[in-house]
Amino acid sequence: MCNLCDATVNHLQHYDTLRQLRYIPFQGEEGAKLLRGHGVMGPPDSVYVITPTGAFYTEDLAMIYLFKLLGGWHRPLAFVIQAVPRVLRRPMYRWMSRNRYAMFGKRDTCRL
């Protein structure tokens, strides 16, 4: 429902030329079941990535994984983000997550 999330999905779809990514709405049963299986019990408030090998990434680590996967100009960006110490990177991500509706707006429904 978040405009930032919607823009992120649009961006990922545009640059995922090999169609490696699959998107599942958190509100659906499949998404909720996957998240519960990884210990996420409440409403989701982050980007979540489950890799083909079963690795589970959230927040900043999920974005780094996605940028590396996309390749191209995203790959160096992933390494720049990764170079920021996690003790700084994680609070910055969480601050954006908490304030995403105020900064980017909100929709009534999720397009996924």
Task: Give a topology summary.
Blueprint: H1 3-15, H2 29-37, E1 48-50, E2 56-58, H3 59-70, H4 74-83, H5 86-104
Antiparallel strand pairs: 1-2
Helix pairs in contact: 3-4
Describe this protein's structure.
The protein is mainly α. It has helices at 3-15, 29-37, 59-70, 74-83, 86-104, and strands spanning 48-50, 56-58. A two-stranded antiparallel sheet has the order 1-2. Strand 1 (48-50) and strand 2 (56-58) form a beta hairpin. Helix 3 (59-70) runs antiparallel to helix 4.
Topology, number of strands: 2
Query: Biggest sheet: strands, sense, closure?
Result: 2 strands, antiparallel
| Shape summary | globular
Radius of gyration: 14 Å
Low-confidence stretches: none
Mean pLDDT: 89
Number of helices: 5
Give the SSE order as H and E letters.
HHEEHHH
Number of spatially distinct domains: 1
- Helix-strand category: mainly alpha
Question: What percentage of residues falls in helices of 4 or more residues?
Answer: 55-70%
Question: Strand order within the widest sheet?
Answer: 1-2
**Proportion of residues in extended strands:** 5-15%
Query: How far is the N terminus from the C terminus?
Result: 9 Å
